[in-house]
Amino acid sequence: MPSPVGTHAGTTPSSRRRRFLLYLTFIGPGLIAASAGNDAGGVVTYASAGAQFGYKTLFFMVIVTVFYVVIQEMVARTSVYTGKGLAALIREEFSLRLTAFAILAFAVANLGLMVTEFGGIATAFSLFGVSRYLCVPIAAVAIWVLVLFGSYRYAERVFLLMTLVFVTYPVAAVLGHPNWHNVAVDSVSPHFVFTSAFLLLGVALIGTTITPYIQLYEAGAVVDKGVRPAEFRYQRADAVGGAIISDVISMTIIIATAAAIGGTGGLTSASQAAKALEPVAGQAAEALFGIGLLGASALAAAVVPLSTSYAVAEVIGAERSVSSTFRRAPLFLGVFTIQIVIGAAVVLVPGNLVTLIVNTQVLEGMITPVTLVFILVLANRRSLLGTAANGPVARWLGAITVSVVGAFAGFLVLQTVLGWFGA
Q1: Domain 26-380+390-420 has what CATH class?
Q2: Is residue 8 scored above 60 in pLDDT?
């Protein structure tokens, strides 16, 4: 049976409808991967940006969105034309030392995300008066049991429905009556604040938007879906569209928070972040925010450690399956278990959860350049992708993306080191 992608449809309404339905069948990996960035760490970081700097980070987010689109398209193209995930490609195309370094970076980045997700769970329950010392251990055990003795796919549907609450942010951005003139100006012209706080938040915004977990997930999902090279234009639409839609929602979180509590400084509690939803939910804003945050955090807390386990097992060639027992897949399930334990344990250490969540996104931002270098090198290789490899424009865009993201991370590291010496 010939592929419908290869047919030359006309411009009749029925042909346009068929083409639209074809695009719908490919929606998934890109959109889901990009939307994953709007989890606990994402929402708290974007809300903190709006609360601390008003609309001034919007232009920065526009730049990040361009970079995000470039990277997501490269990941989708590389996976479609090779039929392999990122971890497998790195193992085949690079030395053993570089492969070990890449997997270690992925593991550290995802471990930071695990702290974020359990921090999100604790923050959500705190809105309902439940202590983190009670809810986090219970949530950790529940997620562990869900993966080892069942499948997270069924729970995923429930969690995704719960995360739909964040769609209210675009509505809240409108009902909050922001200064649209300032929104427009700050979105199209640079408004950087040359302070350590702005730099720190900038790295956090990069880390929560272009996170290694998202690239790992997208690559693996594209391969699992079996997308063929002839169908790449549809997968490209999914990857590019997902990145844009995700960041539009991210920017509305900044706008809604800036309109509600902009200029008050960094967030110190989830109650402050929830105030951005008051134009939509009124007195129920905290409850609405808490339910959505819980759903997003629980979903990511199950999927993120699995992405690490798959990457590690794929590189080593070990058994990797959720349905396997510990005896059949000790490495796969052991890595998953360790991440759950460490992520939950760190969150139980006394401290401000909102600050902890933002700081883990900074860690993500510092590790992200490592991932981007591997993606760019792979996408540039004609020996791997043939004519589907990056052309001159894509090479330049990719190089600029890696350079800018790396520069922000480098400045933060330099600032931290100088701070140790009192400079």
Answers
A1: mainly alpha
A2: no
